[in-house]
Specification:
Length: 473
């Protein structure tokens, strides 16, 4: 049985909205973020206890928009005439907005604003005119919201946006961090919550579909793998929301290539059969949508060591376990076989690749006082072996840096069935030497435990910390 989760976990955003409501001037705020991140829920939840007009646009015609917003204005004003004789222009709608101010402070929220702006180029100017006339009027609180991130960054928030200089604030809503999913799956172990986050990420809409009375496998089957699963086609809908996406199939192929382990620019270009410069253009668009990120050693900011990674856990899962297997996911029985024959046997390996490292990095950011940024570090060193000098790669899954950019702690993450042993300590100490660090704190994160030798070292040395998943929940 699914648990209905009350609104939570947007404390900072709610405080920002409270401050706008208490302002002594007119306010225009932009709230944007990916589809399903909770923008509409945030606005409607906050507006429930205040006089408000909330209108969510769709992809319909301008006539549809005018009819729908006329009904909402009729509801707020109590004047049924607006519903019986809908407005025929947006100029008239904005005049009605001004009339609503006579009733006292009001929130006017236009959600999925990009649909309105695309239909009528005058909308942006009408917003600006309204705010300009009422910039000192504490009765007006206006929110423009939407899920077309590129549109909002360019045409609402950006320096060249028509509303630049009139907007008084903006919020880009981000997914929840992994520890926030506990209310969605009460009673689940820390390990299973980490696995769930590796599959669903921090999108509230996805997490709200989890049924804690079922195990993770049954949830994945029901919501993602079945032909009628709610999230079965979610990535396609996500890309369709973005105005900058023109060749959807190529973007899908780009994400699939990265999920399959092709993470260098040249590898991705070859996989999608495009020139490197063209592939870079696709990647830059995905970066602007915060779906893809460039990763590099935390002490660097580019160079040959850069590789690309999918930012969102759910997209990593979908492009790893759904996109390549569409042909075997056409029936309920074949979807269940796919779950048991392909997904579940590979799930822990999938969790270990990115998700568990990100969970550990988040723990380090929250628990190491000097840390202002946490990422990975890797590099190569020439070492002498019985066969002569060889180049060997060393890495730290967790590298915490302070405000000066200095690494202040290193860590190793292991999700596999094999416990950490003292050999991992030697590797981190080698990394510390390569970075000229003198006895930095070393953290070992493990799902299954630690060897007796490493436990002994942890007891004897104050700078060695052993963190089990039960310590992270």
């Amino acid at each position: 049985m699914r648990t209905v989760v009350a609104f939570f976990n947007r404390k900072d955003e709610l405080q920002a909205l409270d401050e706008r409501w208490a302002s002594r001037r007119g306010e225009l705020m932009a709230i944007f973020g990916r589809r399903r991140v909770g923008k509409s829920r945030l606005i409607t939840h906050w507006g429930e206890r205040r006089r408000h007009l909330y209108y969510e646009a769709t992809g319909g015609s301008e006539r549809d928009h005018l009819d729908d917003i006329s009904r909402e204005i009729a509801r707020v004003s109590g004047l049924r005439a607006y519903e019986e004789q809908p407005f025929t222009s947006w100029r008239a709608v904005f005049a009605a907005f001004e009339d609503l101010l006579d009733g006292g402070p009001i929130l006017i929220a236009l959600d999925e604003f990009q649909f309105l702006a695309r239909r009528n180029a005058e909308i942006g100017s009408l917003v600006n005119d309204l705010i300009e006339r009422h910039k000192d009027d504490p009765r007006l609180r206006m929110i423009l919201a939407g899920s077309d991130v590129s549109f909002f960054e360019r045409d609402v928030v950006g320096y060249t946006a028509v509303s630049y200089g009139r907007r008084t604030g903006s919020l880009r809503l981000e997914p929840f961090v992994w520890s926030s999913i506990e209310p969605f799956v009460p009673g689940w172990s820390t390990d299973d919550r980490i696995r769930a986050w590796a599959v669903y990420g921090g999108m509230p809409y996805y997490l709200d579909e989890l049924d804690p009375s079922e195990d993770l496998g049954e949830n994945m089957l029901r919501t993602i793998l079945l032909p009628d699963g709610l999230l079965r086609d979610e990535p396609e809908f996500l890309l369709a929301q973005e105005s900058r996406i023109r060749e959807r199939d190529t973007y899908m192929s780009t994400l699939r290539a990265i999920a399959a382990g092709h993470t260098k620019l040249g590898e991705i270009a070859q996989r999608i059969q495009r020139r490197p410069n063209d592939a870079r253009s696709f990647l830059e668009t995905l970066e602007s949508m915060h779906l893809v990120t460039r990763r590099y050693p935390i002490t660097a900011r580019g160079g040959a060591k850069v590789f690309y990674a999918i930012t969102d856990p759910f997209l990593r899962f979908w492009f790893r376990f759904v996109a390549p297997y569409e042909s075997r996911l056409q029936s309920r029985s074949s979807a269940r076989r796919h779950l048991h024959e392909t997904v579940l046997p590979a799930l822990d390996e999938f969790v270990s690749r990115d998700a568990f490292e990100e969970v550990c990095q988040r723990w380090a950011l929250d628990h190491i006082p000097e840390a202002v940024e946490v990422g990975r570090w890797w590099g190569s060193k020439r070492v002498r072996t019985p066969d002569g000098l060889r180049t060997r790669r060393y890495e730290a899954d967790v590298a915490a840096v302070d405000a000066t950019g200095k690494i202040v702690a290193l860590g190793s993450c292991k999700w596999s069935a094999n416990a950490h042993d003292a050999g991992e300590l030697d590797k981190l100490q080698t990394v510390a030497q390569m970075l000229d660090l003198e006895d930095p704190p070393l953290y070992f994160f493990d799902r299954t435990g630690f060897s007796d030798r490493l436990r002994q070292i942890g007891r004897e040395r104050s700078g060695v910390h052993l963190i089990g998943t039960s310590d992270m929940g």
